[in-house]
Design a protein that fits this description.
By secondary structure, the protein is α+β, with helices and mostly antiparallel strands. It has one domain (about 45-265). About 15% of the residues lie in helices and about 30% in strands. Zinc ion (ZN) binds near residues 148, 149, 165 and 237.
């Protein structure tokens, strides 16, 4: 709801200020896509994990390996979390990835980690939905604007409890991985990359919307790991997210994670990202920690 106020006399002038890209893309170190393409031509599949519908699974990927998220049956959205496998405090930073790249990501974009690390955890090396671009509703695929479906928001809006939201699926999978309980580890679950999800903001009210995912069996998005990763992927209860989520109403399908080993010689010259070199004093002399 918008409170209608009488605009000031210079409203048009104030609104005519020119937009400036907050983080100029040209300032970002660009991944060497040509080198990455050469590396992926020599990769060899090592392992795979099936994520059942309305559930999640974890997986581990070493620096220099690739992982793919594959649609294997019907159209299905996946919610991805990533951590530094040696330090769960360093995890995927959906908001800064959005600010640095765009609301939706594809080949050549990087998945950045949280402060105070802020480095590329993985680079998207291939995306079979890269053709989609932006549709007439302003929607794109693979967003970093949604957060994940969760039982708390569901309870807030519906007054009922549902245990198969992506947040809960990710918490259960992480608990299994760490030998803990979902309640004890759910604070590690974070805002996701919405894999295969087709979303945007409505033109009039700027509300977050979803529409049927264009993903089909055989489509995949692929990542090149730039640090050692622990990942978790949930097959969202929303299925293709064409209508609902946070319930058992939608048709849901499994997803597959495939892990590929790189040829050691082919990654010998890759420049691995370090954690940010900022000194972390935040203006307090003597408090530098780096
Ligand atoms: Zn979900």
């Amino acid at each position: 709801m918008t409170l209608r106020l009488t605009p000031p006399a210079d409203a048009a002038a104030r609104r005519s200020a020119k937009p400036v890209v907050v983080y100029p893309v040209g300032a970002l170190p660009k991944p060497d896509i040509t080198a990455l393409e050469a590396i992926r031509q020599k990769m060899v599949k090592q392992n795979e994990v099936i994520v059942p519908p309305r559930d999640a699974r974890t997986f581990r990927v070493k620096r220099g390996q690739f992982f793919r998220i594959v649609c294997v049956e019907g159209a299905q959205v996946g919610d991805l979390n990533l951590w530094n496998s040696h330090d769960l405090m360093e995890r995927f930073f959906s908001g800064k990835t959005r600010a640095l790249h765009a609301t939706h990501v594809s080949t050549g974009d990087r998945l950045w980690s949280t402060l105070p690390y802020l480095r590329s955890m993985a680079t998207i090396s291939h995306d079979t939905l890269g053709w989609y671009g932006w549709d007439e509703d302003g929607a794109g695929v693979h967003d970093v604007i949604g957060t994940r479906c969760d039982p708390y928001t569901n309870r807030l809006l519906s007054g009922s409890d549902y245990d198969r939201c992506c947040h809960s699926n990710l918490a259960r999978a992480l608990a299994t991985e760490l030998g803990s309980t979902p309640g004890a580890v759910e604070h590690h679950v974070h805002d996701v990359l919405n894999v295969f999800m087709c979303t945007g903001f409505t033109k009039g009210s700027h509300q977050y919307f979803m529409k049927a995912s264009p993903v089909r069996a055989g489509d995949f998005i692929e990542f090149f790991a730039e640090i050692d990763l622990l990942g978790a992927l949930s097959a969202c209860p929303g299925g293709d997210c064409s209508a609902t989520h946070s319930s058992d109403a939608a048709a849901c399908h499994p997803l597959k994670i495939e892990i590929f080993e790189s040829n050691p010689g082919s990654i010998a010259h890759w420049s691995w990202p370090s954690a940010s070199a900022y000194h972390r004093s935040h203006g307090t002399p003597g408090e530098e920690t780096r």
